Amino acid sequence: MLIVITAPSGAGKTTIVRELLKQKPDLVFSVSATSRNKREREIEGQDYYFISRSEFEQKVKQNEFVEYEEVHGNYYGTLKDEIGKYIKQGKDVIFDVDVKGALSIKRIFPHSLTFFIYVSADDIIARLKKRKTETEEQLKIRIERMKYEMNFKDKFDNVINNTNGTQGLQIAVNEIINIIKKTKKSGEINVN
Prior knowledge:
Rossmann fold, five-stranded parallel sheet
């Protein structure tokens, strides 16, 4: 099963994916590649494969990505080899990707189970400001992209509300776990 988690930047998708991986050790994480700089707590090969812009562009030319996107001046993408190795092993794979990437995965793998993490625009803006990882100009760009990405939420199988706080996070995680279990039990999605 391919489980795709997406949301605008700041909605908490990465936090939700990390929590899902803790609570469901049978899931494996599809590590994306990026050309952006590594953040303080990120680990190479665990959070992302950090590669140069030129190396990323070379992989694009060699058709090595299932999906890729340039977001906020940096490339992000899912390597075909990354998905292939887990499919061959019969593993359930979870993805943490941007909205366009999630739609691409759904188009290529129509039986994927997709989740859009929803948070109000005001809450996302507050979260992005609190993170303090962007300049004022970068923040404006992220906010514009967030508004654009919100238009696609109805294209996904499930919309999960991620309200502020630990309790809201756990509610969102529990809801996703329950949907995964019900989907596997019902056989609606091809399970290896």
